[in-house]
Specification:
This protein is mainly alpha-helical and 104 residues long.
Length: 104
């Protein structure tokens, strides 16, 4: 079994978010770094502020398709967003596996 080392960027994001990085904590970190309110950020993502809050607080799971859409809107590569979305789906299902995503 091989284990991948976390990148410096991933370690930094986990330090900022206070734990293992999730899609919600990534989105919240981006929003806070850009100093944008939840209302303005939700509008940018074309979702309600309450839905954004639920995503940030891990009360809602985002589909891989929607995660890729959010990455595109925010100007990020979709691989990390999709990986985190898939990981959350597995984690919520109680499936103890780690997701890796590569561009086809």
């Amino acid at each position: 079994m091989t284990t991948r080392k976390k990148s410096k960027a991933m370690k930094h994001l986990e330090k900022i978010s206070g734990g293992v990085l999730t899609l919600g904590s990534l989105i919240e970190s981006i929003r806070l770094a850009d100093e944008i309110s939840q209302i303005a950020f939700a509008k940018k993502l074309d979702i309600s502020p309450s839905h954004l809050c639920d995503i940030e607080k891990q009360r809602k799971v985002v589909s891989p398709e929607r995660a890729a859409k959010y990455a595109k809107i925010l100007g990020y590569s979709p691989e990390q967003f999709v990986r985190l979305a898939l990981q959350e789906i597995l984690d919520q299902a109680g499936i103890s596996m780690k997701v890796e995503v590569k561009v086809a």
